[in-house]
Design goal:
Blueprint lengths: L2 E2 L2 H7 L1 E6 L14 E5 L2 E10 L5 E7 L13 H15 L8 H19 L4
Parallel strand pairs: 1-3, 2-5
Antiparallel strand pairs: 3-4, 4-5
Helix pairs in contact: 2-3
């Protein structure tokens, strides 16, 4: 279940990246948003929380407006595309004998690699 929150609360609590709506749908295929925000025009964005190997909690925001992007921006559209294309091969792999749980685990591993690259320290 998603919890309603504010942009300010998320920005003050987590390092975040903003990913446009439908930019990484395959990477987030089996993930569930932890938070959402809304305003006078309705829904703004969803926020997904993840923990990096270092223990650092990060937030991926995806939606239409007002998203948060306060990380050292190592993310680019090319990076989104590269990782989402890899995830698409996992999500839509109907030929292999991988179970749903195996696909989900592989997709989560790929998502973690994506986040590590986005939030790597320079």
């Amino acid at each position: 279940m998603k919890v309603k929150t504010t942009r300010k609360q998320l920005a003050e609590t987590f390092d975040c990246i903003a990913v446009g709506y439908s930019e990484i749908p395959n990477l987030l295929q089996w993930e569930h948003a932890n938070f959402y925000t809304c305003g006078v025009y309705g829904w703004n964005f969803d926020a997904y929380l993840f923990q990096l190997k270092s223990g650092r909690e990060v937030c991926v925001t995806t939606g239409y407006r007002g998203m948060i992007d306060n990380c050292k921006n190592n993310c680019s559209f090319e990076l989104y595309r590269r990782y989402d294309d890899k995830a698409k091969k996992i999500v839509y792999d109907y030929e292999s004998s991988l179970s749903f749980e195996q696909k989900k685990a592989r997709n989560r591993k790929l998502l973690n690699e994506f986040l590590e690259e986005c939030f790597k320290e320079d």
